[in-house]
């Protein structure tokens, strides 16, 4: 198996860890005495969720929602399909949607609207990364780890052709580049 050489790191494991500790503290402070349910959007949010919840000292629940989105290449409108529904009853609960990145806003706009149908008390959004681009769907993230320019990134949950999600850091790819150690699929 090809070895991955660290290159073009945008956020190191230490930077990510330190920022997430701050985010956990801010969320815990805001949701004191509330019935908090985190709903993480598969699959990119998995590492972020795991590190975010680790620092909580109050009781909370978490669940997952699976969606797939089709961008401009598939349709000019963009379509989000539900692939996995939540399994916790969120009626009357305070919900915090957790995702790795807010980009066009299609995914989180759809997820927020979808979750409202279950009658939660509130729905807010927490992302590790917010791309500073014009949104296709207007979505406000209530908690943001880092703002980033419009670059292609991978690692720490984010994939490059389904791989590299496991990397403990976030790296960027320049136009035409492939990640170090990439495997060419047949
Ligand atoms: C990525 C990411 C966000 C979404 C953000 O998910 O995890 O959910 O795109 O982009 P948007 O704001 O333009 O909708 P993706 O659909 O690639 O699935 P994945 O999490 O399984 O990689």
Can I get a quick summary?
The chain has 186 residues and is α/β, with parallel strands linked by helices. The protein is 20% helix and 31% strand. Strands 4-3-2-5-6-7 form a six-stranded mixed beta sheet, with helices on both faces. It has a three-stranded antiparallel beta sheet with strand order 1-9-8.
Describe the structure.
The chain is of the alpha/beta class and 186 residues long. The protein is 20% helix and 31% strand. The chain has a domain at 14-69 and 79-150: Rossmann fold (3-Layer(aba) Sandwich). It contains 3 helices and 9 strands. The strands form 2 sheets. A 6-stranded mixed beta sheet has the order 4-3-2-5-6-7, sandwiched between helices. A hairpin with an 8-residue loop joins strand 3 and strand 4 (79-84). Mean pLDDT is 91; it is low at 71-76. Residues 41-44, 68-69, 99-108, 159 line the site of 1-O-pyrophosphono-5-O-phosphono-alpha-D-ribofuranose (PRP). 1-O-pyrophosphono-5-O-phosphono-alpha-D-ribofuranose binds next to strand 2, strand 3, strand 5 and helix 3.
> What is the CATH-assigned architecture of the domain at 14-69 and 79-150?
3-Layer(aba) Sandwich
Return the structural class: alpha/beta
Computed CA radius of gyration, to the nearest angstrom: 17 Å
Total count of helical runs of at least 4 residues: 3
Say which molecules are bound, naming each kind only once: 1-O-pyrophosphono-5-O-phosphono-alpha-D-ribofuranose
In sequence order, what are the helices and strands, one letter per element?
EHEHEEEHEEEE
């Amino acid at each position: 198996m090809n070895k991955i050489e660290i290159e073009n790191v945008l956020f190191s494991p230490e930077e990510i860890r330190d920022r997430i500790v701050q985010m956990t503290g801010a969320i815990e402070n805001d949701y004191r005495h509330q019935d908090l349910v985190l709903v993480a959007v598969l699959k990119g949010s998995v590492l972020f969720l795991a590190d975010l919840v680790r620092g909580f000292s109050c009781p909370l629940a978490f669940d997952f929602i699976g969606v797939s989105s089709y961008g401009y290449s598939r349709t000019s409108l963009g379509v989000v399909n539900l692939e996995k529904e939540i399994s916790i009853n969120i009626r009357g609960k305070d919900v915090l949607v957790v995702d790795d990145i807010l980009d066009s806003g299609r995914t989180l706009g759809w997820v927020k609207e979808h979750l409202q149908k279950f009658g939660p008390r509130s729905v807010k959004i927490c992302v590790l990364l917010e791309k500073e681009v014009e949104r296709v769907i207007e979505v406000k993230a209530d908690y943001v780890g880092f703002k980033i320019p419009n670059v292609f990134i991978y690692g720490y949950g984010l994939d490059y052709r389904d791989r590299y999600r496991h990397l403990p850091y976030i790296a960027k790819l320049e136009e035409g580049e492939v990640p170090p150690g990439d495997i060419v699929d047949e």
